[in-house]
Amino acid sequence: MNLNSTFIVQFVVFFILAGFTMKFIWPPLMKALDERAQKIADGLAAAERSKSEMKAAEKRVQAELASAHDEGQKRINDAEKRAQLIVDEAKNTASEEAARILANAKADAEQQVTKARDELRNQVAVLAVKGAEQILKREINASAHAELLTHLKAEL
After folding, report:
1. Rounded Cα–Cα distance for residues 140 and 148 (Å)
2. Which residue, 130, 133, 126, is CA-closest to 149?
3. Residues 110, 115, 118, 124: is their CA dihedral positive or negative?
4. CA Rg, the chain, in Å?
5. What interhelical angle do 146-155 and 26-136 show, nearest 10?
6. Model confidence over 85-133: pLDDT tens digits?
7. H helices then E strands: how many in the chain?
8. Which of 35, 61, 92, 97 is 20 to 30 A away from residue 17, measured at CA?
9. Do the Cβ atoms of 149 and 142 come closer than 8 Å?
């Protein structure tokens, strides 16, 4: 065999094999590679969408957390104001009650002082009558001299 003929035969076999490969093997292989590339591209796009959705969701969560924190702070402030109002109302009620109790105590003390003065006047009148009786050495009739005794009580 001649080297040139071998070379030509190998060249022809190569082109036949290349043609067969390009006609029957290459298209399914390229189709599989394209499908794989498309799946990878779809997966990367989905990952990017998920990433952007995750960032948006994170922003929404942060906004809701801030809103919840603000609302909680507002409720705390409202509760503190309400507690202060309740304390102020209790202080006012206690002050009014103390003033009322003090006024009742003063009125009660005035009544007791007036009652004690009246009792003291009666006792002084009785002592004055007894003293006058001793001085006059005679008995004074309390019912007969009631007007005199009343006038004496009023003066005392």
Report:
1. 11
2. 126
3. negative
4. 60
5. 130
6. 999 999 999 999 999 999 999 999 999 999 998 888 788 777 777 777 6
7. 3, 0
8. 35
9. yes
